[in-house]
Fold this protein.
Amino acid sequence: MGNNGDSAKGFSFKAFVTPRIIGGIVVIIIVLWALTILFGTSDKPASSPQHATHVTAPSAGHETDSSHGGQAPTVSKTAHTSTADDGHGSSHAAPKVPTAADHGQASHTASTRQSSHQPVSSSHAAATHDTQASPATTHQTKATDTHGDTGHAAVETPPSDRHPLPATVVAPVHKPTPRGVAFVEAAIQPMEYELEERWWGWRPNDIINITDNVNNFQLGVLEITRRTVVALAERISRHGVTDALDPNLEEAMNWLMVKPSSYWFPSAESKYKDAMDEMRTYLDKLKAGKATFFIRSDNLIPILASFEDLLGSCDENLVKDTNEDGTPVSFFKADDYFYYTKGVASAMAMVLEAVHHDFLLTLESRNATELLHHAVVSCQMAAAMDPWIILDRDLSSVFANHRANMAAPISHARFYLGQLVKTLST
């Protein structure tokens, strides 16, 4: 009886547990089947397991289409084929098992297509099949444009980083300075400075003379200006002695002959300013090609000879011990001679430099440029002397004799100008 009870209990337990175990197994199978269907669908390619065409994203070394401004990447379309036995001895393409990388590449390609504003054809979105058999595995790669995949014509748009070429820069044409401009400017500048820029202006005609050194310096500048304008009006600006004088130069020459100490009726500085205005008018005509300037040696010789004569007078005043009346040269007269000569040397150096510029061809034809250079240097040395006080001591004294010091470069300038006149005359 006991055994029959145990058997009945065991049978009851088995009858209770068995359907539940079977039901659990069935539920697990159903769940696994459902999960397989659910997750297997996303992994399964959209096409049947034949030759599948996958559109992959371009590699790091992909090319860009230059006609689209370098923005649309080139997509490589790869057809993968492999052989598989279908049981009939023929070779068919085996399906390619998709991987996570493939899905990532496909997503990148889709985003690239969408950014290029090109619709993706459904025939290309789905996998295509290759029905022809292939005897061996082949790997064919073809580079196509994104626009070519969708069948749309490419529209060429200029890239944003392409800048138009700059306009051709034409260098300005500099016309050569007309011959004679430097000479006329050198004749104007020293006198114009004394009239317009010097503090207190023109001083030799002042009623109260308290600056005799500046006065004598201005007289020396005036003398050089006078001789230069005379040579320009009577010689350099004319083709010959039969040509008429230039009216502006003639007026300037006449106004410069006014006495430098004339205070009124006419005023010296006003007439000298008128003379500079006439010189400026001639200079403008010279620049415009409406005036003449001849660099012949016979036009240059008279002005150099005139300068040589003036330097001879200055040299005599610098070395003499007594005046014409026999009285000794006083301390106050010595500085007058010194500053007058300094004014002459200062203005002469500027004019001679202009002669070197405008008469260079004439000087080189006679091998006279070296002589003119020495004359200019000597005048510059004399003009550079600027002692605080002019001493006129004995030549053997321990104190300076500034007149004698000034006489040395003046004598050299006079000598070189004399040699220059002789050279140009031969």
Observations:
- Residues 2-43 form the longest helix (42 residues).
- The two ends are 171 Å apart (CA to CA).
- The beta strands are 53-56, 75-81, 83-85, 91-93, 138-144.
- Confidence is low (pLDDT under 50) at residues 1-8, 42-155.
